[in-house]
Fold this protein.
Amino acid sequence: MLDQTFQEAVHIIDKLEEHGFKAYFVGGCVRDFLLKRKISDIDIATSAPPEDVQRMFSNVIPVGLEHGTVIVRHLHKSYEVTTFRIDGNYSDNRHPDNVEFIQTIDEDLKRRDFTINALAMDNSGTIIDLFNGIKDLDQKVIRTVGKGSARFHEDPLRIIRALRFSSQLGFVINPNTLSDMQTISPEITQLAVERLRVEITKFFGGAYINNGIEYLKSTEIYKYLPVMINYPYIMYEIPIKVSPLGGFSEVVVFFHYLEPSVSIKEWFDAWKCSNQEKRDVKQLITSIDYYLEHGLNKWFVYCLSASYFDAFVRLINVLYPNHRLTKNEVISIHDSLVIHSREELQVNGHDLISLFPNKRRGPWMQEILNDIEKHVVLNHVPNKNNELKDWIKWNPPATN
Ligand code: ATP
Ligand code: MG
């Protein structure tokens, strides 16, 4: 009997089998199911060639046909359906140069990185475990499928993936695997930074991040990561105990406070940050700087967009654990605010013009509104039209 999580997806496997193909749940979803962890996405491996998968389902997105991957949409969810394959060389360290589609799952499982990721499950819930992945799950061990040196050389991203699983799962890394990671680690510099970022973000978001950081330090693999390659001592500024971060912007902000002499531009350039990430980093740094100088107050919470609450609280706690800041503290201040945006202010430009009919329009109007907005937020003056106008009369704009 299949677990609830797979019930909706099993339709896809059943349909592939009705057409005479083999199909299995595979990889991370089987691993996480056996670990009783939340399953992030369900991947399916099949003997059906991608063209057949496309024909068989009405709602498909051909995301990577040359690698045999098609996304099938079913009941508003996406499933990656990939044809059983053997990977060719990884000469660009990004994608295999060529892939060969095959008929059985065995060889497909063999190309996967770690034993715990090389598990497959059929539509009745039977597990295929060719490399003792279940034993490694039980013993909490990360171990390559096959010889580590060859597998890491083939795709050095697997070195970073091993670290990220140690951080997400709290597993140990098998000693041979670990020593092979170290040997091949200089090859990390050949990887596309976009691939690295995905894994490094998951690494810093892992529930067992301290386990991951210990491996990152002891193996000295950080010496081959962008930015750290130039400032390896940054790693030793990481506090002994840290908590998980929520995204790559948070990683940049975290290191910015550990080592402010490395400019955020260096982080942005070396890690190819998006414009959105750059905005987030700058906003979070402005907020943290303000908070460190003034503490939590109404004006601060008013200015901090609610979409940054979680990141802000996480960063304060990881950088300044003795502050013991909680999101509830921020939310209760937010809830107590008399206004939540400039639009709610009970005075506007028209009021200013009628109060000072002889004054020319100009920047003074914005200045007064900015000023009064802050006074209203800080409860210095009630947000009532008459009272605000009185306040402005007593605090008129400068004569020029
Ligand atoms: P997550 O829960 O983060 O999605 P995952 O194990 O599913 O973890 P993915 O990156 O989604 O990781 O990859 C899906 C599966 O594809 C893996 O479980 C593994 O079997 C295989 N895989 C992914 N990347 C590699 C790689 N670089 N080398 C070998 N196998 C890989
Ligand atoms: Mg996955």
